[in-house]
Amino acid sequence: MKPIKSVAIIGAGALGVMYGWQLTKMLGRENVCFAADKQRIEGYKKQGVLCNGERCDFRWVDRDHPDQTYDFVLFAVKFTAMEAAVETARGVCREDTIFLSVLNGIESERVIGDALGTEHLLYCVVHGMDATRTGSHVRFQNTGTIVFGDKNNRLTEDVKAVSELLERAKMSYQIPDDIRQKMWSKLMLNTGVNQVSAVFGTGYGGIQKEGAARQMMIDAMKEAKAVAACEGVVLTDEDVDQWLAVLDALDPEGLPSLYQDILAHRPTEVELFSGTVRKLGRKYGVLTPINDYLYETIKKLEAE
């Protein structure tokens, strides 16, 4: 196994800063960078970046004039910025660079694979983190767990190398028996929770109690479950119930990320959620009326 010695992060949002600061502190500033275009770097440097009140001394690398190529590239952007992110990655990667995306959904791996190849692309979903970004300040209490693996669930040299990197960085991770099942399970959750919260204009408390919002959330999740089966991924009613138990334990005042985006007048990741379910529903002849409604409603909210 060839150890990972250099890391490039693309995306300085909540997750990028949270993971980037941990990697920088544990591996050394000289071994970790944020890659971006020159204009974006100038903005970051002028504004500064704080993580839990601590000023982050990040190393910034111009994607058009990189100082080197990197062993590992971590994608931590919104899906709406994914196309630009892969162009940034071109400047700092080489043929054996390992790629990992911590984005929601199941689509970012397709975008990375189409643009940069699939040989060293790992699949990933993250659980349990609570990082939020307000202006230049990122706050979190829980870094969560990075759940990742090879698409075919093999213990490859790349999987071993990333495991060793995360251990050195003291970052929690899991290698599941079936990474695609884990990714689809999280997508199923987000399809319900994130979207229904935004449409009903409520935090977690509004979908923790019985009523129209909670029922719509469950119905949206079951549509995602039906589509997943057509993709060869088995999700069960027990999986739905387990997510409901997790949801019911969250802070009632908390806001899912898609609703946060609506409130902040930012583009949402609706294409990752109902967008994905609707597209695959059409492909396999599965009706998705709840996700159709959520998609159309959220698009209207974005336009407003």
Question: How much is the radius of gyration in Å?
Answer: 19 Å
User: Which regions contain 5 or more consecutive residues with pLDDT less than 50?
Assistant: none
Overall mean pLDDT stands at: 93
Largest sheet: 5 strands, parallel
Strand order of the largest sheet: 5-2-1-6-7
Query: What percentage of the residues does DSSP assign to strands (E)?
Result: 15-25%
* Oligomer kind: single chain
Coarse structural class? alpha/beta
Fraction of helical residues = 40-55%
Query: How many individual β-strands?
Result: 12
**Separation of termini?**
52 Å
> Could you spell the SSE succession in H and E letters?
EHEHEEEEHEHEEEEHEHHHHHHH
- Helix count from the secondary structure assignment: 12
Shape label = globular
Short description:
This protein is α/β, with parallel strands linked by helices and 304 residues long.
Structure overview:
This protein has 304 residues and is of the alpha/beta class. β6, α3 and β7 form a beta-alpha-beta unit.
